[in-house]
Recover the amino acids of this structure.
């Protein structure tokens, strides 16, 4: 499994990914899932991948190849972030066309999904989720984060803390907490964690983080978080147990008698 | 969807459930999913249900009917909590036998699962998860909570706060937070919330809670929690961005050249 997330706030973007890949619990490996295709001063482009590894690797490969042979279109020529998202979608479709019939025969999951975050020239920063079918949605001020892969464990912390006005550094901390919550609850998501922070208008990735398993910051963060949650739970007002007798509603057996 | 959880700590037990049932997002109703079959001074028995509503209702019905006609076995005659769990499992199997072929024909999900928490006579309190197949597992000191239904959103808070030595009242607060996190992130889990707290050795349920949507305690709890999480995230030590240049590893296109 994989967990990647992107957060779009007024001050910029955060994208983060774990690095665990598994084919069953007995074959677990580590692969990069966050790719930087930025051209400093011109465009910031970060891509995260989730799903069938052979498909996502093949798509990233074609993105790189198109750059190398200076194909049109490619990641560095397209004029808007949306057109970049559609172009990635078309590469996903091409790979699904090529491989899906063979994977389907053996009931192998061929689904994949991508996050694309960045900024192209004068445009505002943007964040897209590109589906296995090649279509895409974008993050908005009302829904400032997007997730792919094993998304459920890490969603509550984002739901509780993320707003479009959240400071960028706090968004990065919440992203780490969201990934750590997922790693804590699901063994198939694991370190190293990679994360980038992008400041709106900078057209350059200036903040990158790579956290290995057992990194002191990760351990410290986890301890701080667990203590804070326990403290916050203890500080909740006492429960007023309000319901002293069992429900008065007829039971199923009562109903049968009527 | 449904979310129910049980927590077993040294001081006793907490069981809690939401009340939403849906057949698609356009048919959402409210049903009780937590049932009290206790006989004060003799045995405490709480059951929570999840999954196909016609199956879980039918199983609860047969449990009630067996009590009414004084069948052997029934919930009040069995000598141990484990034997009660196996008896519930056998009723699940009977209902699956009766209905599953008809449900399967129309690809209707026939799965269900049950939580059983309580204490029978001199035994220690126990907590069981009974599967759709009729078999069961029990909570232990190492894994002091069990969940059924939509379990992922509410698991991180339990992973971070629950130990076997956690005070009972704190376990109840964490259970509410776990359900509230799930409701916040997934519309198909919803109020009213029902919860019971059982003190080890009391052989009687003395604390019951019913929280309707919009209950002031629920709203206050949610606000307190969101503020606490945001505060705790802000108080995290600043991230030391440690990774100033893109990875040195060869890209896929480089590899092709070799």
């Amino acid at each position: 499994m994989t967990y990647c997330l992107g957060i779009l706030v007024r001050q910029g973007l955060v994208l983060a990914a774990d690095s665990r890949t598994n084919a069953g619990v007995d074959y677990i490996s580590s692969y990069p899932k966050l790719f930087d295709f930025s051209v400093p001063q011109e465009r910031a482009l970060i891509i995260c991948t989730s799903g069938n590894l052979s498909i996502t690797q093949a798509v990233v490969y074609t993105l790189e190849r198109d750059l190398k042979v200076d194909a049109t279109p490619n990641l560095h020529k397209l004029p808007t972030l949306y057109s970049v998202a559609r172009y990635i979608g078309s590469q996903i479709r091409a790979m699904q066309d090529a491989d899906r019939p063979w994977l389907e025969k053996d009931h192998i999951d061929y689904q994949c999904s991508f996050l694309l975050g960045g900024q192209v020239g004068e445009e505002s920063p943007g964040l897209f989720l590109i589906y296995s079918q090649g279509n895409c949605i974008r993050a908005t001020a009302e829904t400032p984060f997007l997730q792919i892969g094993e998304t459920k464990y890490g969603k509550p912390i984002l739901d509780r803390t993320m707003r479009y006005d959240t400071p960028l550094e706090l968004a990065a901390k919440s992203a780490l907490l969201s990934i750590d919550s997922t790693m804590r609850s699901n063994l198939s998501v694991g370190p190293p964690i990679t994360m980038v922070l992008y400041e709106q208008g900078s057209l350059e990735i200036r903040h990158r983080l790579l956290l290995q398993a057992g990194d002191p910051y990760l351990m410290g963060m986890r301890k701080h978080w667990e203590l804070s949650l326990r403290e916050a739970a203890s500080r909740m007002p006492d429960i007023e147990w309000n319901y002293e007798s069992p429900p008065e509603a007829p039971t199923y057996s009562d109903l049968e008698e009527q």
